[in-house]
Amino acid sequence: MAIGYIGRTAAETSETWARLLGPLGRRWRERGERRRQIRIEQREARAADLEDMTRQRDYLAGALDTCRSEHEATAGYLLYDARWHYDAELAAAAAGYESPAHLSLRQWRDVNGVGR
């Protein structure tokens, strides 16, 4: 058992040992080369996957930054706009004018089918 393992390992790693062990050594050597080639291909595939995932992460990070800045600008404007409408409605009420009905964001989304 141990001799077979040692012989197989020696043949897989050394061309000289593979020749010394004859046809069985050459078979073990070829198997070792196939395994080595598979490991190389797997390593290359992992490197390509990692590079692709890194590219995707960088793209998504940029897209997230864009969304974040757009959201912050929109949120700031909505606060300003709500305050403006509130003040305008108070001024109109003080002057005796009745403002037309205004839809909330949720009502507007329901009416226009947005966000379903």
From TrEMBL:
- Entry protein name: Uncharacterized protein
The top of its lineage is: Bacteria, Bacillati, Actinomycetota, Actinomycetes, Mycobacteriales
